[in-house]
Amino acid sequence: MRKDRYESPLSSRYASDYMLQLFSPDTRYQTWRRLWVALARAEHKLGLPVTEAQVAELEAHLTDIDYEAVRIKEKEIRHDVMAHIHAYGLVAPGAKGIIHLGATSCYVTDNADLVLYRDGLRYLRGQLLNTMKNLADFARQYKDLPTLGYTHYQPAQLVTVGKRATLWLQDLMLDLEELDFVLDSMRFLGCRGTTGTEASFLDLFEGDEGKIDEMNRMIAAEFGFERIFPVSGQTYARKFDSRILNVLSSIAQSCYRFANDMRLLQHDRQLEEPFEDKQVGSSAMAYKRNPMRSERICSLARYLMADAMNAPMTASVQWMERTLDDSANRRISLPEGFLCCDAILRLMQNVTHGIRVNEKIVTRTVNEYLPFIATENLMMEAVKRGGDRQQIHEIIRTHSMAATAKMKEGEPCDLLRRLADDPNFNMTLEELTALMDGRRYTGRSSHQVEAFLEQLRPILAQADGQEAQAVNV
Q: What is the pTM of this model?
């Protein structure tokens, strides 16, 4: 491996072998050759002057791409598709004359992109499902454990650790729904000609439009597509790239939210991401236990959310039947969007598989704020015992302010002691303490977790359950 050339960290550090192979030159250009074979096969079956032997010869040379021959030819003619046609003809000389018959460059470039994007989305769907499965297992395990809820990152009413996890899980569920919509709406471009009119094939098939439609159906079916874009210019609608990058960005948004919460909760020592025995948190501070995986998720997610802006900017400036200012942008933004989303979901699987819950700290935090959280229940209980609601409210308010002031000076909460000692508040310390059970104040959290996971059960059954290995640090 050369060390004197730039290499994208997405390929050298973060993305999976599958995604790297999917967007490799071999996969892309072998897909081009498969498309040329499919075109030749359809043309042969529909009566054009393409022989079965020529189709077989092309099919026998799908993988033996002479990249040096391509490089030399492209340098000469400044056209990558024609350079590949030339190289294909060198290894399949008997079929050289019928390669790319009636087609334009976008027949191979655009259709190959659609194949790669579809396969990439399918792979990411599995990664997403595994992440969701991990979070579902976590939510189920901790559905009953009370924890302090936060609004505005300020202490609020109690929830449970499992209930909070369902919020992260629901975001990913919405992403899955959007991903499935994009997959279900995938279409094939077909072979549509220089401006999308199929004029070349109208000539080749001597005006038989039915054969043109059948040819496109045959090629699309060979690559697993049931639908074709009903109309096109030279390219497929670039708005579809926006749809693809939007769903990748949506996944990044959800993962960022989860990872950011993890970073805050790890600061509070309530939850922690996995940390290996020999892992180093800091080169200077040996005691450090930084949430580096969650930080990396946030870092990569920011990149992906910004990258997703490329597609709408490209789609908005497609002049009439086509312009080429999309090409260089798409070569970078689409593959890197997939690689980045892949890296994020690999990290998500690793983190969600090994979240550590420091239950004693979680419970200590609950107990610290529980007297304030329980004040409405205390007021109701005092009224039951003959107290005046408005008077009791004022007593609780006054003592709460005083207890809070003491806590700000570093002293423990003494609200219960203050209330018990107040002659106008007719409850003893023992009676007040008996009401300090966090499970009384989590509302329907446990049942909400159970109901939500039951709703997701058929979807999560599709997960393969394989934990993704941690990416390089």
A: 0.91
